[in-house]
Design goal:
Distance between the termini: 8 Å
Radius of gyration: 16 Å
Number of helices: 6
Structural class: alpha/beta
Strand order of the largest sheet: 2-1-3-8-4-7
Order of helices and strands: EHEHEEEEHEHEHH
Shape: globular
Length: 216
């Protein structure tokens, strides 16, 4: 068996999070000393015009066994997303200033792609740590959904066996302190979110190792 290679891709700064906890979590995951897997951490610009190229290049370079995207939401819990839909409908511009309204990600493309991470096991592991988490069936229509849909599509097109998915995290206390527009929104400590992501990665790695044993 070989150590699973896992890409953790966190979005960078954008209109709703000048210091995006998704970026901080991804970078922290890349600094940890993993025993049962290899983690490659990356920050993805919140740009719809370059997103697919970024994902494609990383898949080609690393040939990962799993891709875990991370983005921020306004919800008070960790959400493990299950499906990406073929729509963009932005309530705020992306980092390039684009505001896409009611446009498909891929014209005439499939209506949706399912994520393939072990969603239920990830949520179970996170909640067992006392951290609120749930499976989600709607990743929105901004760049988080765009990454989820596009990664699954590229995995299919490149004929990879890569597990792919996306996890939403809440705002951090720092987001509220630095931007009073977020004062009424729920937050979660960055350390707690990192613990949740550690568990998500560990569960994913074990799932891949089990798959290797079954196919050996």
């Amino acid at each position: 068996m070989t150590k699973p290679k896992i890409i953790v891709a966190g979005y960078g700064s954008w209109a709703k999070a000048s210091e995006n906890p998704a970026e901080a979590i991804a970078m922290e995951m890349g600094r940890l000393n993993w025993v049962n897997c290899e983690v490659s951490a990356h920050v993805i610009p919140v740009r719809s015009d370059t997103l697919v190229d970024h994902i494609s290049a990383l898949l080609d370079k690393h040939a990962p066994d799993a891709w875990i995207g991370i983005g921020v939401s306004s919800r008070p819990l960790i959400e493990v997303e299950t499906v990406g839909v073929n729509w963009c409908d932005f309530d705020v511009p992306d980092a390039a200033g684009l505001t896409l309204k009611h446009k498909p990600i891929v014209p005439n493309g499939p209506a949706a792609y399912n994520a393939s991470l072990p969603h239920g096991h990830i949520v179970e592991a996170i909640t067992q740590a006392g951290i609120p988490a749930a499976i989600s069936y709607h990743a929105g229509t901004h760049l988080c959904n765009h990454m989820l849909y596009s990664t699954a599509r590229l995995v299919e097109q490149k004929k990879l066996s890569t597990l792919s998915g996306f996890i939403h995290v809440p705002l951090s206390p720092a987001n509220v302190i630095t931007d009073t527009a977020h004062l009424q929104r729920p937050t979660m400590a960055l350390q707690t979110m990192c613990e949740a992501m550690e568990r998500a990665i560990d569960v994913t790695a074990r799932s891949i190792l089990n798959r290797q044993i079954k196919t050996a």
